[in-house]
Task: structure prediction
Amino acid sequence: MSDAPQPYDPSTEGARMRFEGRMSYIDYLHLDEVLHAQAPLSSAHDELLFIIQHQTSELWMKLAIHEIVAARDAIKDGRMRPSFKMLTRVARIFEQLNGAWDVLRTMTPSEYTTFREDLGESSGFQSWQYRAIEFLVGNKNASMLQPHSHVPEVVELLQVHLETPSLYDEVLILLADHGVDIDPSVLDRDWTQPYQPHESVRAAWETIYRDPEAHWSAYELAEKLVDLEDYFRRWRFNHVTTVERIIGSKRGTGGTSGTGYLRRMLDVVLFPELWDVRTSL
Ligand code: HEM
Ligand SMILES: N[C@@H](CC(=O)c1ccccc1NC=O)C(=O)O
Result:
């Protein structure tokens, strides 16, 4: 017998070591499905990175949708505090998605071109969860339903998000319910259209930012929204920079101009008056 210390046996402190007939970690998380869902089409070493990067992003997007919808419901019911918690989580999810670009950035153009052709015309442009997030935070665009016309359930789901007031719409309705003077045209509009900035909203935020003590909840909510948009903008910027680094100015597999299209999306402003108000403070 050697005198070397034996590896520690956690069963001595009660760790369960057998799972016949019991729910295990693998069962609860359905890991058999998750870990068998990677099916590279090429023999390229980097395709697994590409697939996992997108699949994990889609999982985080699923959680982001869950949180944004719940935050919007809470705001609709006047439950501000729970909404803060959820909006903070959404910003952290975007931070997580932003960090993930550092992994993908390790893929060079030479590596990507070894399997890019295998992607056909598929593209992140067809991510319905991404489109749902855009609609939830107010970047409405009915044309974006079209790439999903081959999946009626997805069109139906996106149509609901298109027609429902966005997170920002509900925030403005809540402010008005609390006696803040907001123009009625902002509070009852065609929700399928992108939000148009209104002077009454800028003035309302100015009142709030000039005296935070008097309007603490609205002030805190405003900062949560700015945070969310800040992280969302970083995601867009990381995307376009990574894309330029990997494919230069090639057209996208989704058919757009590529970086030209993505750069245009950098101009999207979700909560315009919250940015405008900074100038007048
Ligand atoms: C090699 C890495 C990547 C390249 C070269 C790339 C390239 C592109 C391009 C060129 C577009 C424009 C649409 C098109 O014509 O295809 C696009 C859109 C998009 N990509 Fe990526 N992408 C990459 C990684 C990712 C990752 C990791 C995600 C995360 C899910 C993602 C999500 C999206 C989304 C959601 C859009 C639609 C954006 C919008 O409509 O505003 N992409 N991508
Ligand atoms: N649009 C990319 C392809 C691409 O990135 C992609 C392809 C399939 C699944 C997800 C993708 N990611 C983001 O657009 C390209 O033009 O190379």
